Amino acid sequence: MHPMLNIAVRAARNAGKILLRAGEDLSKVEVQQKGTNDLVTNIDKEAEAVIRDTILQSYPTHSIVGEELGEHKGKDADYQWIVDPIDGTTNFIKGIPHYAISIALKVKGRLDQAVIYDPIRGELFTASRGQGAQLNSKRLRVSKTTVLSGTVLATGFPFKNKHHMDAYTEAFKALFVHTADIRRAGSSALDMAYVAAGRIDGFFEIGLKPWTSAAGELMVKEAGGMIVDFAGGNNYNHSGNIICGSPKLTQAIIREIRPVLTEALLR
Ligand code: IPD
Ligand code: CA
Ligand code: CA
After folding, report:
1. Which of 10, 26, 75, 107 is the most exposed place for a label (fewest CB within 10 A)?
2. Does ligand 1 lie within 6 Å of residue 188's CB atom?
3. How many domains does the chain divide into?
4. What is the CATH number of the domain that holds 168?
């Protein structure tokens, strides 16, 4: 295992212990509101601090950006870590056992290492650029499905930005009629890890933040998948509008939703 991936795994496991311990008594968890339907807890912050400390202990000059603690500018801007301490905070707060820690490393602006760790199931998804993606050391491949018929897709609802609801619903309808079913499990990092694992055939969501999607992006690509924005381009890091799956299924998804999208989502 690449030494930097090893540190990412250590950081994720350290954070996982904090989440599991806190999950045993949710009444003690302090919840704050960041925005509309956007919640954060003291545990998100504690977990991110531990991840940050674990990374900086080994790589004191690296830079880190995290959802809750913001940016740490290290001397070395070539190495940037991107951290989501709990992807699925709403699930975590409600006691729904489905959330993950997501950690990615970019080297000179390029995704290099990724970890998505589900502490409840003990599932560790990892990827290294050019080396493939793994679940607990077993090699991952995206699903072989090429058409929407019979597929199970995953998505996230725009619960923090309900003004996107109409556009999103149109896209949902256009896809739903062709699929077997669509899941909304509440952790997009895990949705993307599941795409890499072939458990879910494809995924789409609007307005994802980089800490939610960075590790998932490398995971899907290293498992032979494709990731694009809603117009089929690569503006997804800017817009956060993401479609991913096997290359053929991704194209099939674009074909269905493109005609119903408003200008605002076509990027
Ligand atoms: C959220 C989850 C959710 C997705 C949202 C994300 P958070 O992350 O990934 O599945 O629908 O767009 O913001 O806030 O729990 O880290
Ligand atoms: Ca989060
Ligand atoms: Ca997130």
Report:
1. 75
2. yes
3. 2
4. 3.40.190.80
